[in-house]
User: Fold this.
Amino acid sequence: MEALPRETIVDVLERRLREDILAGRHPAGSYLPPERELADGFGVTRTTLKHAFGRLAHAGLLETRHGVGTRVRDFLRLGGADLLPMLVRHSPDWIGEIFEVRRSIGALIAERAAARATADQIAELRRLLGAVAAADGGDPAQLADAEVHRALARATGNRVYVLLTNTLFNAYLPVRAALVGPFEDARTAHDRLAPVVEAVAAGDPEAARTAAGAYLSASERIMLEGLARSAGRGETAR
Assistant:
């Protein structure tokens, strides 16, 4: 069995600073205290602090100006969707907003796929749909379901839809275990998704959009119920 990676001091410090920023203890536009003061306060070296700053700057939360200091970026104004996994880890409240986008984008993707899918892409969709029914357990079924949606995005012929689909799935990976509800019965998960694939295969954009909307709404409801139960038990990933 492969050993789990151990948290380093930089990992812990990065998480502490990230939580402080996302919780508003360091507001957007404000400057952090001087490095020496922060390092002394956390009981770390300035080198460790600089490594943590570098990670947070790469994530889009901080910017450092030589001779001026380190400022908290306004990530809601300047950030991109790549921040979503971090934000979900901080607060699962973001999931509802992600699902709102997922519903609208998912329905549009299904509509476009129905208008543009090739015979090979339809065959791939049916093969991947079969893998949902054959999955052994909720987590494999959930991952198999995700591959159907990635294939639907590819079938649109628009690479931006593919990237958006990847982004939305990556966004809720931190709490994926709490969202497994719709996939615990693999056959039911297959049957719920099948009308979307069949509408795409039939080349019926309107039916595909309607089927995708119904699928996304139903699965979202079950996932949010599971997330609420996990939060009540204190199991939600942070």
Observations:
- Residues 205-232 form the longest helix (28 residues).
- The CA atoms of residues 138 and 184 lie 4 Å apart.
- The chain has a mean pLDDT of 90.
